[in-house]
């Protein structure tokens, strides 16, 4: 695995790092593939009760899906990409282990969607959150149009998705996106894990299944995939992503 680092820090707790710090751990297809394969492997580790997910380096958890890779996608490719991302994040959400997101630095777009698939989210004072997709002429494609409103409510979810601005960790805590802010999110995630692993392991698995049961039924992820794909092959998407690679602000025309 080139883009992942995994360390089992005790019998029952493992830490997965998304490892593309040069590109702020953005999720390209290769990384998503690796996460997918990794999840299939750790599913078999019956001793593992808690998985902590974090980003390598101190700058980012994950700064979104890889824009440079998405830039030239057509709507069919975008649909496949979104379907695949959703499949992987659904595996995280329904993994029979507790998943804690230790959010260090930027947590944007697909990164926020990764965090939303975790059961618990711990941030630090330098974490920044946002769904900036509309600045790129697209919408979130890995579940945020569905999961975000369940976590923070429809009004705040629409604000983040329609405006695309970043919020800091204090606001993220206030709106319920974060469970806690600490100096060292991985350290705190380990503390929480050490509490969880002392509880009845079957009870924890049953609790997760039960909490997720009706929640999962209300996630219209297929519809999001369709709306995400509709944004591709448009001038807005081309301009939005071209502007990102040229490090300038996108200029969208009236439509
Ligand atoms: N995709 C591809 N490359 C990315 C990236 C991303 N999401 N985020 C950062 N990078 C790359 C940058 O292009 C840059 O690479 P180069 O050195 O080759 O230019 C490198 O990572 C470092 O980033 P910056 O120089 O931009 O760092 P900064 O400190 O100036 O800015 C930032 C940090 C504000 C997070 C900025 O990088 C940024 O805005 N990133 C994009 C965030 C974003 O829009 N995310 C949503 C993606 S769309 C999505 O996720 C769709 C979905 O739901 C599936």
TrEMBL record:
PROSITE patterns from the UniProt entry: ENOYL_COA_HYDRATASE
Reactions that this protein is recorded to catalyse: a short-chain (3S)-3-hydroxyacyl-CoA = a short-chain (2E)-enoyl-CoA + H2O
EC number: 4.2.1.150
Name the record gives this protein: short-chain-enoyl-CoA hydratase
Enzyme class: lyase
GO biological process: fatty acid beta-oxidation
Family indicated by similarity: Belongs to the enoyl-CoA hydratase/isomerase family.
Pathway: Lipid metabolism; butanoate metabolism
GO molecular function: 3-hydroxyacyl-CoA dehydratase activity
């Amino acid at each position: 695995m080139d883009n992942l680092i995994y360390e089992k820090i005790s019998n029952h707790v493992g830490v997965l790092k998304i490892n593309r710090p040069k590109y702020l751990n953005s999720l390209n297809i290769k990384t998503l593939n690796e996460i997918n394969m990794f999840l299939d492997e750790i599913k078999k580790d019956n001793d593992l009760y808690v998985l902590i997910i974090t980003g390598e380096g101190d700058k980012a958890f994950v700064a979104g899906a890889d824009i440079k890779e998405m830039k030239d996608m057509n709507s069919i490719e975008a649909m496949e990409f979104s379907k695949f991302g959703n499949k992987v994040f659904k595996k995280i959400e329904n993994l029979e282990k507790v998943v804690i997101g230790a959010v260090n630095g930027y947590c944007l777009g697909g990164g926020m969607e990764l965090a939303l698939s975790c059961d618990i989210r711990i941030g630090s004072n330098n974490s920044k959150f946002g769904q900036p997709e509309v600045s790129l002429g697209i919408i979130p494609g890995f579940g945020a149009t569905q999961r975000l409103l369940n976590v923070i409510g429809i009004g705040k979810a629409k604000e983040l998705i329609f405006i695309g601005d970043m919020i800091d960790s204090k606001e993220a805590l206030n709106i319920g996106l974060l469970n806690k802010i600490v100096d060292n999110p991985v350290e705190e995630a380990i503390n929480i894990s050490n509490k969880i692993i002392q509880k009845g392991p079957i009870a924890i698995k049953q609790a997760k299944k039960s909490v997720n049961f009706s929640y999962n039924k209300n996630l219209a992820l297929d519809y999001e995939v369709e709306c995400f794909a509709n944004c591709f092959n448009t001038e807005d998407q081309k301009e939005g992503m071209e502007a990102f690679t040229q490090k300038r602000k996108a200029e969208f025309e009236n439509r």
